[in-house]
């Protein structure tokens, strides 16, 4: 096996060949989203400099921003101490990471036992996706 692929073997992929990837804004530190990665998506992210994930619902590689234009430029990639979770620090192009038109997918806040929208919609999803 070549040394170039050894780093992929250090990831503890689950039974489906996936690992969770937390995506964080490199400048501000806010968690933008969580997605799944496989060997191919992680390799492509490193090679292209833009985040690529594995879409479980589509059953294929998902290049973040391929339909919305809200790409994620990868600044840093880290692996946690157990080797089973990835952290991508990114520059979020357009400032929107969520398909709902918000900065982050983590926009719902638990208040008095009720989930409430805590972040505004930056751009209407209908304007983004048509």
Put the structure in a nutshell.
It is an enzyme of class 3 (hydrolase). Helix content is 17%, strand content 35%.
Can you tag this structure with a few keywords?
four-stranded mixed beta sheet; globular; two-stranded antiparallel sheet; alpha+beta; Ubiquitin-like (UB roll); 130 residues; phosphoribosyl-AMP cyclohydrolase activity; PRib_AMP_CycHydrolase_dom
Gross morphology? globular
CATH H-level name... which superfamily?
A: Phosphoribosyl-AMP cyclohydrolase
How is the largest sheet built, in terms of strand order? 2-1-6-5
- The number of helical elements comes to 3
Mean pLDDT: 93
Q: First CA to last CA: what distance?
A: 46 Å
Order of helices and strands: HEEHEEEEEEH
Give the oligomer, counting copies of the same chain as homo and different chains as hetero: single chain
CATH class: Alpha Beta
CATH topology: Ubiquitin-like (UB roll)
Structural class: alpha+beta
Main location: cytoplasm
Subunit structure: Homodimer.
Cofactor: Mg(2+); Zn(2+)
Enzyme class: hydrolase
Q: Can you describe what's shown?
A:
Mg(2+) binds at residues 80, 82, 84. The mean pLDDT is 93. With 130 residues, the chain is an alpha+beta fold. The strands form three sheets. Strands 2-1-6-5 form a four-stranded mixed sheet, with helices on one face. Strands 3-4 form a two-stranded antiparallel sheet. The protein has helices spanning 3-9, 39-48, 125-129, and strands at residues 19-25, 31-37, 52-55, 60-63, 72-79, 86-92, 108-111, 114-117. It has one domain (3-120): Phosphoribosyl-AMP cyclohydrolase (Ubiquitin-like (UB roll)).
